[in-house]
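Field notebook, page 330. I keep forgetting to write these up properly, so this time I am using the form the group agreed on. The chain and the ligand, adenosine-5'-triphosphate, are recorded exactly as supplied. Prediction of the bound pose follows.
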Amino acid sequence: MSNDVLLEVRDLTVEYATGHTPVRAVDKVDLDVRAGEFVGIVGESGCGKSTLLFAIAQLLSPPAGITGGSVGFRGENLVVMNDRQLAPIRWRNMSVVMQSAMNALNPVKRIGAQFSDVMRAHGNTSAAEIKERSETVMRLVGIDKVHLSSYPHQLSGGMRQRSMIAMALLFTPDLVIMDEPTSALDVVAQRSLMLQIKDLQAELGFAVVFVTHDMSLVSHFSDRLMVMYAGQTVEFGDTRQVFDQPAHPYTSGLLDAFPSIRGPRVELVGIPGSPPNLAHPPAGCRFQPRCPKAFEACLTVPPPLYDVEGVQARCLLHDDELNATVRSAT
Ligand SMILES: Nc1ncnc2c1ncn2[C@@H]1O[C@H](COP(=O)(O)OP(=O)(O)OP(=O)(O)O)[C@@H](O)[C@H]1O
């Protein structure tokens, strides 16, 4: 991993134009990803994780649209580019692996033919070159090259996901965006696929942005972790630090809701209540209605991100001035 910033997302805002009030699914999100880094994004269902990934990859379609901010990738803002300008970047420099290979792969086309389509669409026309690269990426993900002649339904779930990853690596991109690529797999296949992604990353040096619901997956595999709640980043920092000393009550709640594989047995506690309606988020802190540590200011003051020993956390508990006022009033 280097210190070169590969992806620089600033103030990114995405809205779904449905009903009377637009739904702001991603609200002014900042995200930097360095070359070769693995960044995990977690949060409850509906918090905007997939929308953020689609916005970064410029794959949103109506009613969703980017209404503010920028996506800097290798120094260029993707948001202002048209499809023709994006074409040379897609697959070659940035590729996407979706949640379900069964939906992303064409069911009536052999795997090899799908690889070939991607390579031809992006400028590789030599049949020999396409064959060689297709066999190489299948080897990289541990699938015998005979399966280039298979249809998706002839492969197991794990093999389908692996072939999606192989397809994403056809051009050795700098960034691979993954939206829960292991969620349809059993835990054994899940772990083996994750180990393989990490090995490939070490070998080929690409960065990964990885969305999941699974805290134990990110605890093992990500360098840095972003926790999202109601369209916003609520905590972002070094994964170990976030796990050891969560700086946001929502992160603590997520951690308490997941079993630890090796630690002592403890009772799991869920987070009471449910996430807010993003068309009408609560005033003040969005997590406040569910927060065990909420105090009066949380009802009205929308918290910014505070720096807490190198981790960013969107919680008024870290506002020294506000806390001094609260202490002096009691
Ligand atoms: N087609 C749509 N029309 C209107 N609003 C939508 C649409 N799709 C998503 N949303 C809104 O965007 C929010 C974020 O959705 P998104 O799928 O990005 O969340 P997520 O965190 O990826 O959830 P999951 O983990 O279940 O995939 C949802 O809460 C919903 O309010």
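OBSERVATIONS:
- Residues 16, 18, 23, 25, 43, 45-51, 63, 213, 278 surround adenosine-5'-triphosphate (CB under 6 Å).
- The two ends are 48 Å apart (CA to CA).
FOLLOW-UP: compare against the apo run.
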